[in-house]
Amino acid sequence: MARDSGGGRLDKLVSQGFLLTRSESKAAIRQGRVTVDGAVVRDGASHAAAGAALCLDGRGAGFEGHIYLMLNKPSGYLSATEDSRGETVLDLLPPELRRAGLGVCGRLDKDSEGLVLLMTDGALNHRLTSPRHHAEKLYEVILDAPAGHTMVDAFQNGVVLSDFTAAPAGLEILGDGTRCRVMLREGKYHQIKRMFGAHGLHVVHLERLSMAGLSLDPALKRGEYRPLTGAEIAVLEAAVGRITKKGEIIS
Hints:
With 251 residues, this protein is an alpha+beta fold. It has helices spanning 10-18, 22-30, 95-98, 122-129, 150-157, 191-197, 230-240, and strands spanning 8-9, 34-36, 39-40, 47-48, 54-56, 59-60, 68-73, 103-105, 113-119, 137-143, 170-174, 179-184, 203-211, 214-215, 225-227, 242-243, 249-250. Helices cover 22% and strands 26% of the residues. β13 (203-211) and β14 form a beta hairpin. The longest helix is centred in the last third of the chain and has 11 residues, at 230-240. The protein is elongated. It starts with 7 loop residues before the first strand and ends with a strand.
């Protein structure tokens, strides 16, 4: 499901919706790669009506004045918009996007990798990270020693830590036990590392695979990003409810 544009000059809308420069937008339109309500349009100066469904190479885009990105975070970057201690995930983006007012949704530790969402939609960002919405996050973990199968029940019952008891979490032990998958519905500081640490295990590597039902695109290499499609934005909204124009949340 593609997001609808607010109407306007086609090359401008394509540029905004697919994070292209204006020249890239015009070239894509001339090449016949852009459709408006299913019909190819080759004139970038033409006007797209409000509510028209725009697609580039058959893929819809998010409009409504917001930018939504999927990033494959590499190790060594901070999940922040700015930090004096080192490079942040915004340093992986071109200058025009660093100035776009993006917020980090779903932070990862500096040495962790995988799916991070960046968006200018503060309301959706808040709902995705708010504990009350219980957005599920799936991680793959590599340990320094095999996990025992009794830990499956321990994770499900909630691991008791020094300052809080973790909410019930899913644990799947893979192969020889040094590789696991963990499903969380909360995300406190170093939580997965601390949960395994409570059982005497050290996390060697941690990667987030999905969040709120949206999986990391396997085509994205570490450090790469791309815009979310309209269908992907809809997946996130369905997971935590969609805000209407009246400010109501529809589950």
